[in-house]
TrEMBL record:
GO terms, biological process: DNA integration; DNA recombination
Record keyword DNA-binding present: yes
Protein name: Integrase
Superkingdom to which the source organism belongs: Bacteria
PANTHER family per the UniProt record, alphabetical: PHAGE INTEGRASE-RELATED (PTHR30349), PROPHAGE INTEGRASE INTD-RELATED (PTHR30349:SF64)
Domain (Tyr recombinase) ranges: 224-396
Coiled coil location: none
Keywords associated with the record: DNA integration, DNA recombination, DNA-binding
Lineage, broadest ranks: Bacteria, Pseudomonadati, Bacteroidota, Cytophagia, Cytophagales
Family designation: Belongs to the 'phage' integrase family.
Organism of origin: Chryseotalea sanaruensis
GO molecular function (one): DNA binding
Limits of the Core-binding (CB) domain: 123-207
UniProt KW DNA-binding keyword: yes
Length: 406
């Protein structure tokens, strides 16, 4: 009856699931429009939520069908895709998952629960979203660590909007969540970036949305200088490593400038003792590269191979599995303690020390960049700031002043 007063076609409405005041509801979203308000108020049992800034109706059997029919009678387009999105996406061949097998496919990471508030369990649709994300991560060849991180971060995101389905969230919702992480939870910039990457992966890769559909400001990265050990400290750590397995493990990280993950992924055949090279498969960015091997450690490495006879992995843990990163870090921690070194030393510190010591010995940053597998030379150039080679040539002005005073 109102259509005759409007020349233009009215704006559409968007229907979404909403959990409000302990009730399952259907929310009705639309931009401010007098005609739509009039049409919406005709719905029996309609209510307005100041919290969610939308109209809603407590859900019941047949409600969705009746709402669609009501709006269509008044020439209003209805978008209810977010309500049925989960079931629709399961039919998509690119991200299809059998519901009965879904629980077998995925082992979801645990959620860190806040001390003051117990998190509500994710509903079935949200669980499906996580399964979709994990399947896509596997298909694109992401590492297990990245997969766990993305799943955890997106699960936290869905807990924040527990009453909304992710498809219906806007870039404003995303920005509000990121502000919550920064201002309320006070997470690190690294964690902020993890959350952003997980959110972008879902909307852009899983859902196929273009990047311009929402905008997120990324935090500026902290640029701390790398912690570097002296050559004497490296020798002392190696001498206090313990058995031959632990000793060669730390020696190899330093000798070749390896990342922790690169060492535990080495196979016996990746170490070429004749050519003094180490072949690194699928390093950061899934790139292969070669690095150098110290001639001095060859006899000890041969003895290690003779004693332990590694089969699949160069360093194996229980039952022939890869040596764990946590165990490797513990090996270093004990060696550092026994050596009496007070610096905060991590496995990556050995890699930093490798690069810095090469630079101090006159090796070009271009060669160091290749050995480390850095994509950009700017990453490698940070070692010039901690190199004694450069600092030793610069005298403090205080030395000149005191010399003149004598």
């Amino acid at each position: 009856m109102y259509d005759q007063f409007f020349d233009a076609k009215p704006a559409g409405v968007r229907l979404e699931k909403l959990f409000h005041r302990d009730l399952n509801c259907i929310a009705i979203h639309f931009p401010y429009d007098g005609y739509l308000i009039t049409v919406t108020k005709q719905i029996e049992g309609i209510l307005f939520s100041k919290t969610h800034r939308c109209w809603y109706v407590p859900d019941q059997a047949g409600l969705l069908k009746n709402l669609i029919a009501h709006f269509k009678r008044h020439n209003v387009e209805v978008d209810y895709s977010s309500i049925n999105k989960a079931s629709e996406l399961l039919k998509d061949t690119d991200v299809s998952i059998d519901k009965q097998q879904a629980t077998k496919i995925i082992s979801l990471p645990p959620v860190e629960k806040p001390e003051t508030k117990k998190l509500r369990a994710l509903n079935e649709e949200q669980q499906i979203v996580l399964r979709m994300i994990e399947q896509k991560l596997h298909l694109k060849g992401y590492t297990s660590n990245t997969t766990k991180t993305y799943l955890f971060q997106f699960k936290e995101f869905m807990h924040f909007y527990a009453n909304s389905y992710p498809i219906g969230l806007t870039d404003i919702d995303i920005r509000n969540y990121l502000l919550y992480l920064v201002e309320k939870k006070k997470v690190s910039k690294s964690t902020q970036n993890q959350a952003i990457n997980a959110i972008k992966f879902f909307y852009e890769i899983v859902m196929g949305q273009v990047r311009q559909t929402y905008y997120i400001e990324r935090p500026m990265k902290d640029r701390p200088l790398p912690q570097v050990l002296s050559e004497e400290e490296v020798v002392s750590i190696i001498q206090h490593a313990g058995n031959i397995k632990h000793t060669t493990m730390l020696m190899l990280i330093y000798a070749a400038g390896l990342r922790r993950s690169e060492l535990i992924n080495l196979k016996p055949g990746d170490v070429d003792m004749d050519r003094l090279t180490v072949f690194i498969r699928g390093g950061k960015g899934r790139k292969d590269r070669q690095s150098i091997l110290a001639k001095q450690m060859i006899p000890m490495l041969k003895e290690y191979m003779k004693q332990y006879r590694p089969k699949r992995w160069l360093y194996e843990g229980k039952d022939g599995e890869r040596y764990s990163a946590a165990s490797m870090q513990m090996v270093l921690k004990k060696a550092v303690e026994r050596a009496g070194i007070k610096k905060h030393v991590k496995l990556h510190t050995l890699r930093h020390s490798f690069a810095t010591h090469l630079l101090e010995s006159g090796t070009s940053t271009r060669y160091i960049q290749t050995l480390l597998g850095h994509e950009s030379s700017r990453t490698t150039e940070i070692y010039t700031q901690v190199s004694r080679f450069a600092l030793d040539k610069i005298k403090s002005p205080l030395d000149n002043i005191l010399r003149l005073d004598k």
